[in-house]
Amino acid sequence: MAPFSLMTSSVSWLAKSFSVFSCTNTLARCTSVLPTAYVNPVKCLTSQASGPPKRPLNGYLRYVLQQQPAMYRRIPEIKTVDIIRKIAQQWRMLSPEQKQPFQEASLRAREQFKVDFQRYQALLTPAQLQQQALEKRQRMAKRKAICKKRELTELGKPKRNRSPFNIYVSEHFQEARGTTTPAKMKSLVEDWRNRLSHQKKVYTQLAEDDKIRYKNEMTSWEDHMMEIGREDLIREQTLSNKKKVSAKTSEVKKETKKAKAKVVKNTTPTVK
Questions:
Q1: Is 59 part of any domain?
Q2: Which InterPro entries does the annotation name (predicted)?
């Protein structure tokens, strides 16, 4: 099972967005395994008339959406995050027999989804299929980029160096003119353009210092990545430079070894 924090956040998002979908199927009541107060019909995500079928919920999410209304009625002032946390605790305490109806409903919905999706695909033109494949690749690329960024953050990759303007914005954003972020940014851009060269010089120097900081931290970080076997996270230029240095060092060692062997050979007395 996924970590609790990740599980609750994803469930919260799905629970909030659930109301915007068209719902037709209901989940059978589980009176034999759950108290009556906790049993409510749950509608499942189904296909829209003008779009592709929606992927069905798994057993756990079905249980969450079933328990939410009763939880809201019992504790009207409770927050959604707290509801999800309580329901997740209840789910973990259920026996396999109590979870079975939700999981079986999920399996049935998954089979129906496969049929509906094949029927939907058959109605698409070649151009629509091509567009669909393109959108899928874009979604996968975006998801991969997000995962990689999260991994780099967890591994402690240094933050990139800031430009003079970035430093200026961070120092003057609070007192900038405007009530919204776009308005504040617009005023900061105008102020930056109107500043004289000697007024920008201090930020240019700070940016140079930050650039040195980033370079030193990246060198240490990439050395550490090399030690733990994560060469895939090291920049190509850094790898190329390391290979050049390694090749040069290896060549020097070979030349030194040859020179020593030659010296030993010349100093060895000839046996007559």
A1: yes
A2: HMG_box_dom (IPR009071), HMG_box_dom_sf (IPR036910), HMGB (IPR050342)
Domain region containing 218: 164-229
Number of domains, the chain = 4
pTM above 0.90, yes or no: no
Q: pLDDT tens digits, residue range 240-268?
A: 876 776 666 767 677 777 777 776 666 66
7 has pLDDT over 50 = no
Same domain, residue pair 17 and 48 = yes
pLDDT tens for each residue of 45-91: 444 456 889 999 999 999 999 999 998 899 888 898 999 999 999 99
Three-state DSSP string of the chain: CCCHHHHHHHHHHHHHHHHHCCEEEECCCCCCCCCHHHCCCCEEECCCCCCCCCCCCCHHHHHHHHHHHHHHHHCCCCCHHHHHHHHHHHHHHCCHHHHHHHHHHHHHHHHHHHHHHHHHHHCCCHHHHHHHHHHHHHHHHHHHHHHHHHHHHHCCCCCCCCCHHHHHHHHHCCCCCCCCHHHHHHHHHHHHHHCCHHHHHHHHHHHHHHHHHHHHHHHHHHHHHHHCCCHHHCCHHHHHHHHHHHHHHHHHHHHHHHHHHHHHHHHCCCCC
